[in-house]
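Fill-in record for Poly(3-hydroxybutyrate) depolymerase.
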Amino acid sequence: MSMMYQAYQNHMDLTAPWRTGASAALKYLNLVPAGTSEKPFGRLAAALELISRSALTYHRPEFDIGKVMVGNDEHEVTEEVTFKTPFGSLLHFKKENAPEQPRMLLVAPMSGHFATLLRGTVKTLLQDHDVYITDWHNPRDIPLNQGKFGLDEYTEHLITFMNELGPRSHMVAICQPSVSALAAAAIMSEDNHPARPASLTLMAGPIDTRIQPTKVNEFAKSKPLKWFEENMINYVPFQCKGAFRQVYPGFIQLTAFVSMNLERHIKSHVDLADHLAKGETEKAEVIKTFYDEYFAVMDLPGEFYIDTIRDVFQEHLLPQGKLTYKGRTVNCASIKRMGLMTVEGEKDDICSIGQTLAAQDLCTGVRAYRKVHHMQAGVGHYGVFSGRRWNNEIYPLLRDFVHVNS
């Protein structure tokens, strides 16, 4: 199983000429005059485009956030890397001539996709905050001599990044990194670190997966840890910069995501082919844009994946007070003088109701008036941090919470 990734990469390399040929042929077919889109030319063009798109990409898409409204004024947004390690960059969305706003670190999950999956979240937050994001690098591009990256290293990055932002900054963690975000806040509080978060917001995160376990949680506990090590961890193919690094391949994670909603994804591609054949460009572009992002996959470092399976999903170390960071016990009760907000989605089938709320009970040192919990009705996992209800119902609460704690 450890060589599956190599076999997959070999297959992609061998079939690359087919995709290149389909793309080249499509350019010629696009010269066919308008009005023939529903004829055989249209169907052929649709088939060729689907073939040309039948591969995953391992390169991060662009955030492409050109401008944002701050109050009644529009401001240019430029991306600026303010700190960088082999495994991740601290990316700042700098707004030209914008008024001073609360600094915020948005912690992106390392779960098979790039940080650009939070593009919509960033756009919304930029209205009222000075936003930075954890822009994780793809392990397949990181040479083996750069060392390992496990749960400790993840938490260490958050502490380092918060130090770069400086005092009175805020931290918002989306999904999986909620555990590391809470651990980082606890360690920084215990050390009386000057850059400890002024507020911490945990959104749909697996703080205590013993509560109403989902299918994802049950799968993580259904096998011994050795099974995950032998069946899920692969070596990066020799064609890549990170050759022979142990990873949990992004294509395996994507396959798992797709299989959870297979019928919907099949229907989307059938609809895409139909729109392309009929020349319905705008409708096709919506589907293509979604899958351009969805099929841009990132591998997970093998150490991080195994640490997460063991510590978070199998042994539940954090809620039991047994999680350690570089040998130190993570004591959530040490968190004081900090606002704590937890957000959950009613229909979340990845991180169920109660799992994130558990952080409130662990943080006994946070005063009750500085704690906020919100359960958003009618949304699933992604609806907690993207979409209409995030923008109109969840974000205003988060914005007010951050400003009160600034």
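KEY FINDING: The chain has two domains: 4-55+250-294, 67-218+300-404.
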